[in-house]
Design goal:
The complex is a heterodimer.
Chain A lengths: L12 H9 L3 H22 L4 H17 L10 H24 L6 H13 L2 H5 L1 H11 L2 H11 L5 H8 L3 H18 L9
Chain B lengths: L1 H10 L7 H6 L7 H20 L6 H16 L3 H5 L10 H59 L1 H6 L1 H10 L1 H12 L20 H7 L5 H6 L2 H60 L1
Classes of the chains: A mainly alpha, B mainly alpha.
Amino acid sequence: MQLVRIAYKTESDENLMRAMARGDKRAFDEIYTRYADSLKRYFKRMLWKDELKAEDFVHDIFAKLIRKPDYFDVSRSFKTWVFSVACNMCKNEYKKQSIRKGTSLDIEDHYSLSDTRVNVLNEVEMNQFGVAYEEKLGQLKPEHREVFTLRHMDGLSIKEIAEIVQANEGTVKSRLFYATKQLAEKLKEYNPVLE
Amino acid sequence: MEDKLQEILFSKSFSELTEKEKSSFVDLFNSEEEYESLQSLFTQLEEYKKDQPVASHHKTKVSLDDLFVNQHQSVGFVARLFPPNKPFYLSPIFQLAALLVIIALLYPLTQNDIEKPIQLAKNEDSSTKKIENKSREKTLKQKIVAQPELKQPNETSSKSTDKALQKSNSSEGRAEDSEYASFPQASTVADGRIPENEIKSESDYRFSSNLPSKDQEKSTPNRKKSESESLLKEKLILSEDVSFSTVLDENKVFQKNEKQKQIKVKSLGENTSVLAVLSAIY
């Protein structure tokens, strides 16, 4: 029984999840406001910049939380857990796409699809850093891309990323180092200092 | 290490870096150009994060809210008792009611079982009564045995009349003698009495207690006759009392058994009626 009123804004994600499992609507609202945007960004990056698909995936992941709140292991961090679920959803989507297109299971083929989209864009957009960044990011290996975005776009720690991608911290650091070096090299032409 | 790199990139230029800092990040950059490219990447990335127009659709939130309400609407107590998606016989309220009916039907049966020990206790009481009656009987016997000795003076006073009567009924007296001869001679005591455990008939009793025989009684005065008769009656009543008390006890047990049977039959009838109602509902 809840005797003390929950301070939703300052409450931890795990406590909010417990309250949500009991049917607390405000706890769900708080969880949604905390993670909906970052999850959508993550899905958008991982799913070939498809905004509608990213929106659907956000809906699906929160629907899972509503229907089966017990799936969440309270001993774990909610942030890492929700991103690991998102990561698995993306992997499943890659498999689906590869079967649909009759290609191999190599995920890199899917990322090459985003390159064709970028080529359609006009030259003005290409000059923008954001477009170039997304393009070059898409050219990276998925494991490198995933680690880089989780670290620099979603602000997760090395430990959290290791938990999400189910790899040790050393592997995550090496992937991050490789992705950083690759991007820095490819995006040096967009360096405003050099311009 | 990652945090330290970003801190250096945002705060220092390549010329400001110490040798230690340069050596720790030697894998990432070796020249000033590489360092500056890294600097530009992270600064622009920070700006890109801020400007990134990502906002989830309002429709998604609305549909999720509806889902949440539907999911947690049925959590209430009444809704749990009457789940909308289940048939009525699977609803918890129906199951609870059925359980209560079964308990109500089984309760009288369990009550009858509890009464049995009380019945046993009553049986024990009757047995003690029997023992008490036996002891009373013994004491009365002793009294009866002792009484003729006290009445001896009356016998002596009426000796002459007795002798006359004996003479007149000599043929009958012989018959009495023959009756006495039939008793086992070995068991007779020296004073002419038969042991109590061997008393089988009225004549035995008369013989053992030195009472006059039936024929002798006819000749004795009415007073004496009435006395002996009253003693005999008392003896008979006692023996009857014992048997009658046992019969009463047996009757009581029988009546109780009958009552139990009636209750069982009633409860079975109720069971069958409830089952019939339930089957009709189904």
